[in-house]
């Protein structure tokens, strides 16, 4: 069990982690880990989106995580189980998206999460174009390991 992982290599399905909610399910506002507004989406986020406490990704931010289940308030810290990871590249930098929650991961949850991150990658590419900032490829590469 990982209590204070420092990279995505130290997380595994079944581990328990603490996640701070930065975007409540249904929210239109995406915040940075500092709390400042990153962007306002034209669509509500279908998941609670946040970061895993005590971790650091290749982008120098805490590892991203979504928490399945009902809406959780911004700023809440929850202890949840790691279900898996969606491989994501953001501006050429590895940016894995950890999928967490309580209970069991359903096949429909897994498919929905992967669809969401494919759409999210497209939205981020548009955002980078509008901001005239692109450090490289932004894409959802699917589950790690790939679903068989």
Structure at a glance:
By secondary structure, the chain is an alpha+beta fold.
Describe the structure.
The chain is an alpha+beta fold and 148 residues long. It has a single domain, classed as Inorganic Pyrophosphatase, CATH 3.90.80. The chain is built from 1 helix and 9 strands. It has a 5-stranded mixed barrel. Strands 2-3 form a two-stranded antiparallel ribbon. It is globular. Mean pLDDT is 87; it is low at 1-8.
CATH architecture tag: Alpha-Beta Complex
Largest sheet: 5 strands, mixed, barrel
Order of helices and strands: EEEEEEEEHE
Total of domains: 1
Shape: globular
Strand content: 25-35%
Strand order of the largest sheet: 1-4-5-8-6
Total count of helical runs of at least 4 residues: 1
The class by helix and strand makeup works out as: alpha+beta
Mean pLDDT across every amino acid position: 87
Structure keywords:
single chain, five-stranded mixed β-barrel, 148 residues, two-stranded antiparallel sheet, 9 strands, globular, disordered N terminus, Inorganic Pyrophosphatase, 17% helix
